[in-house]
Amino acid sequence: MDKGQVQSSGQRARQPRTGWAGVNSAPSASQDSGSGRQAPQLHILIVEDELLPATLLEIAVMDAGHVAHKAAGLSKAMALASAEPFDAAVLDVNLAGEFVFPLAALLRKRGVPFLFASGYGRAGVPPEYQDCTVLQKPYATDVFNDALRTLLQGPDPAQARR
Predict the structure, then answer these.
(1) Of 83, 76, 141, 140, nearest to 112 (Cα)?
(2) C-alpha separations of 144 from 97, 141, 151 in Å
């Protein structure tokens, strides 16, 4: 992801590239699903306390034609996850000294699929979440895209919004 791909106003300067948006997951709202109807964009919660990784994840989600919602702290993320329907989430394990596991429990209870992105790797994830995907920081954008595509290809991600 080039930093020149996003205008200084924060608006995307181009249409999404091909990627995980159209591969066995929901197409972006601008793509036709073949039935003459437009498929809804997926809403992805990004919980990351560092600005650069959060921005890079936001760009990757937007490039795929989806809507990114960011939270840098646990309390904001909990409030968002309690009030808003999400199709998936990306969770940093340590948010400025607070662990994200209460949020993971809430998301699991609500049926929202999630993955962890952490410098701790799998060793930083408690036993009850060992079945979750864990991306070891630093990771490449294509590794993130593959992991999120796989997460979204699980049971119908739109089910989490109902």
Answers:
(1) 83
(2) 24, 5, 10
**With a threshold of 0.90, does the pTM exceed it?**
no
Give the integer Cα–Cα distance in Å for 41 and 67: 7
| Per-residue pLDDT reduced to its tens digit, 71-106 | 999 999 999 999 999 999 999 999 999 999 999 999
Helix (H) or strand (E) holding 91: strand 88-91
Radius of gyration of the chain (CA): 15
Q: Which domains does the chain have, with CATH numbers?
A: 40-161 (3.40.50.2300)
Joined tokens for residue 136: 């070891």
Q: CA-based angle 93:96:86, to the nearest 5? A: 50
